UniProtKB/TrEMBL annotation:
It catalyses: IMP + NAD(+) + H2O = XMP + NADH + H(+). One of its GO terms (biological process) is GMP biosynthetic process. GO terms for cellular component: cytoplasm. Residues 1-91 form the IMP dehydrogenase/GMP reductase domain. It comes from the Eukaryota. Its EC number is 1.1.1.205. The keyword Lipoprotein does not apply. It comes from Paragonimus skrjabini miyazakii. The keyword Acetylation does not apply. InterPro entries: Aldolase_TIM (IPR013785), IMP_DH (IPR005990), IMP_DH_GMPRt (IPR001093). This is IMP dehydrogenase. GO terms for molecular function: IMP dehydrogenase activity.
Length: 101
C-alpha cells in the first residue's frame, strides 16, 4: 500500500515506494474503514438465488448446460458501458432505497 498509514506501519511499503534519501513522503494511496455489513453467509443465499433465476431465464438447467450454450453460440453475453448500466438501472424517481436483504 502507498498510504501514509501503511508506510508508517510497514517498512516494506516505505521501501517499495521511496528510497531512504527522500525526506518528503507523499501518499500514493489511501486508507480508510468501511462499516461491517455482516457475515458472507447472509449474502450467499441471495447470490445463489440470483444465479438460479438468471439460468432459468436463459433456459440453462445446469452450469455445464450454460457453458455449452455459450460455446455453441446459443447464448451470448454483451459488454455494457457504465452509462448503459446506469440507464438500465432505476432512474427518474424522486426517492429510491436499495435494500439487499
Amino acid at each position: 500500500m502507498g498510504s501514509l498509514e501503511a508506510m508508517e506501519t510497514h517498512s516494506s511499503s516505505q521501501a517499495r515506494y521511496y528510497n531512504e534519501a527522500q525526506r518528503i513522503k507523499v501518499a500514493q494511496g489511501v486508507s480508510g474503514s468501511i462499516m461491517d455489513r455482516g457475515s458472507v453467509h447472509q449474502l450467499v443465499p441471495y447470490l445463489v438465488a440470483g444465479v438460479q433465476h438468471g439460468m432459468q431465464q436463459v433456459g440453462a438447467s445446469s452450469l455445464a448446460h450454460l457453458v455449452q450454450m455459450t460455446t455453441t453460440g446459443l447464448l451470448r453475453f454483451e459488454h455494457r458501458s457504465s452509462s448503459a448500466q446506469m440507464e438500465g438501472g432505476v432512474h427518474s424517481l424522486y426517492s429510491y432505497e436499495k435494500r439487499l436483504f
